[in-house]
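This is your field. Please look over both lines of this record.
***
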Amino acid sequence: MSEQLHQRLFDELERLPLIDPHTHINPHAAASTTLADILGYHYYTELAHSAGLPREQIEEPGLEPRELVGRLAPFLDHLDNTVQVSWLVEMCREFFGFDGDRIGAANWESVYDAALETMALEDWENTVLEKSALEQVYLTNDFDDPLDGFDTSRYVPCLRTDDLVFHLDRQTTRERFEKSTGVALSDSSSLRTGLAVLFEHFTSHGARACAISLPPDFTPEKPDSVAADAALSRIDGDTEWTCDEATAVSRMVFWTLSQACADFDLPFDLMIGVNRRVYPDGVFQGQDLFDKRTSLKQYGELFSAFPGVTFPVSVLSSTSNQELVSYSWIFPNVVTNGHWWYSNIPAYIETDCRSRLQAVPRHKQIG
């Protein structure tokens, strides 16, 4: 590709308004207030910890934002080869007037002060959105989120369902469910009733999707109602289900959520393949990894059972991308969705995007 064509394509892409389909932004306080809100994000704390900074120094209780950045900054000298740090430098240039090539131990304080001054401006939140050409930001909302007090046309609610599918054995999850729905969970019938209440609540507040992250060994199948009801009938406090009981309940909840997506005309975003707490001594959100056991064959029955539900699918590794491309090629309701987490690296994105653009209908690609 010639430099002229490259620039022309880039300029055209720059004109497009953007919708971010997956964030963890707090809509009640969406804008960063210090540089620590950026450098404290797990992409940076993971790398600093990997480069040698102890977790205890990153997550010390009561640590002031300036002190946190001061502890992280020296480790940026080891990380200037990474794309994550290139993003940081670009952000500081675009928003805070930084004109250098590197941020590290020698200059972090001036960058911190410039960021602090800019972030204190009254129109800071709008400045970020306008300069980034962001029209909408999709949220990650707990199922018991009241969804009040923010502009849902800008910050779009999305129902995150991991707790419902995988943690109904916990008393706190069931108590939250009952408080938010008015339904005491006891069997599959009460589950359906309660989920209908949740979907009514979310869609009435402008929700545009349901979402979940899934481990490699999860297989959605048409549930065994008898087995699920038997497990639900003996819930008492923090319940210790057998593996078979937990699987029966998880499949029941997941299938019921899929039916609710069909009933309420919501897409179901699937983020497939994450193993939780592989590195339990890691920093916050820096403990989870993927492996190669994931196969979308496990989801074939689901995609066929709910042809009216759109499933935007994200995978964690480039090795899973060809399978995702093939499923989106064949299944009308499977959509390729972004480059999630560990696949969010240009070297992988370039190859993945090329295969998607060459094989998948153009209107079935997100990001």
Remarks:
- The CA atoms of residues 26 and 139 lie 8 Å apart.
- The longest helix spans residues 243-264.
